[in-house]
Amino acid sequence: MKSVINEFCTRIGRNRLLVQGAGGNVSWKQAGILWVKASGACIADADKSEIFVPVELGKLSDQIRLGNFDIDLRLHESGGMRPSIEVMLHAMMRFTVVVHLHAVPVLAKLVQARFKEDISGARALGKFCFVSYAMPGAALAKGIHDALVSSPDANVVFMGNHGILVGGESVHEVEKAIDSICAFFEVSTFSAGGASSSSVGSFYKSGKRFIAFPDSEVQQLALDDSLFCRLEKDWALYPDHVVFLGACPLIFDSEKSFMELEADVDLPDLVFIRNTGVFVSDDFGSARSAQLICYFDVLSRLRNVDNLVRLTEFQVEELLGWEAEKYRQKRSNLAG
Ligand SMILES: [Zn+2]
Question: In terms of domains, do 109 and 176 share one?
């Protein structure tokens, strides 16, 4: 099983529409052990290093039976690795192989109101259930547990403003389900009408070097007016975006207004300048780059911007104060 899982992880890990940095997780159950991706580890690295942690399934099942979804992940550390914060989701799905992804074609729908109503009766999606957004960890685990009690046959759980959970008896079965779910939701994406790259390559500001983010699609977030106008309002749409890129973006209406900033102002590592470009500091790193690309991929799939469900201020604060997330970020920054 391990080698088939590793091949699967390497395969999906290369697809930016399925896996972004250390996001998502994969597990399988074997002889009473739940092998689950370690917190902060990248699915894409499965062929290069050990990314799975063994956890006694019986211990997790006991807690689920007691209705306790708030487990101390430190107690399940093994080989210096802590299980994913979403380990309970994997334990409560009765399937041998369980995969949780922030799959972009679906995520772009999961941030829209009426998702649940729109998919009711869609047979192509298999047996599924839906849970509204909840803070990842215990609250999300409880929501999914309750949904699975009502829909015990569900092999797919759609998680509002978050992602999907897919179970199957084999990797093949799960992969097939993920493919058909993504195909069901995929739409044609935005195509740029204006300039494709920033006219400014790099600059120094506040003691930091900033470079134009090296992706012509991501540059559209600043170069295309219809996308730029949405940055502020449609920023906080799903947890990993907020956790890695912050509560709100730093936006400037022109290169001039940016250059007029005080020299010693404390700048974040990501800056959007209208009609000029998207710039990142040398410290930005691969984990945040993956999230920035994901954000473009989601935003470029959103047609109807009137019906978006954004994370509330409270939900954003809750995510940014989250100890487990700080641990995961630290690990993924080390990995990335
Ligand atoms: Zn997730």
Answer: yes
Quote the ligand 1 centre to 212 CA distance (angstroms). Answer: 29
What is the whole-number distance in angstroms between the Cα of residue 163 and the centre of ligand 1? 6
- Number of domains the chain is built from: 2
193 within domain boundaries? no
Ligand 1 midpoint to CA 102 (Å): 6
CA of 190 to the centre of ligand 1 (A): 25
HEC string of 300-332 equals CCCCCHHHECCCCHHHHHHHHCCHHHHHHHHHH
Q: Name the residue range of residue 222's domain.
A: 202-300
Residues with C-beta atoms within 5 A of ion ligand 1: 163
Residue 277 domain flag: yes
Segment-wise mean pLDDT, segments of 10 residues, the chain, 336 residues = 94 96 95 94 93 94 93 80 91 96 96 89 86 94 96 95 97 96 87 65 84 94 92 95 94 88 84 94 94 96 86 93 64 55
Q: How many CB atoms lie within 10 A of CB 307?
A: 12
